[in-house]
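Dear colleagues,

As part of the handover before I leave the project, I'm documenting each prediction I ran so the next person doesn't have to rerun anything. This entry is a single chain, and its sequence is reproduced below.
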Amino acid sequence: MLNWFKSLFKRQGLAGPAKTVWAFNTSSQPITQDGVSVDQNGWRIDSREKRTVRLFEVPVSGIEQCQVTYRAQMKTANVDRGTYLEMWCRFPSQGEFFSKGLHHSVKGTTGWASYETPFYLMKGQRPDLIKLNLVCEGAGTVWIKELELLQTPLE
């Protein structure tokens, strides 16, 4: 298990182009419905306080020894404390582990930009479910679109 934790923080070389595992558009229904509406070819998320917005869960198999990336386009209005992407990977009989995009937390009012959060998987580390969330640390409005889950092999 210790090697697994080390792999989360160890910088890995990528070998090859990213492959799309799953892509979401407005025909996809987010898990959280409260304060979430379709707008501007994506979803508008209104937050009055700190909350985690559960967007999608992706059942996966055969993914290992790669970087899994949660990528999305976001823009914000009056976000007072920040918002970021969060990804959880569930491993059978090991539990759930997360990657948070704290280094790309967005606040204030911004235009559209691309954000991503990676998760490194070593050989033998095979999640069966990946959860994609948006964390709002306070009040504000976030628009999110072009959500993708990507897989890039490691060297």
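The two ends are 21 Å apart (CA to CA). The domain at 2-153 is CATH 2.60.120.260 (Jelly Rolls).

All the best with the project,
I.
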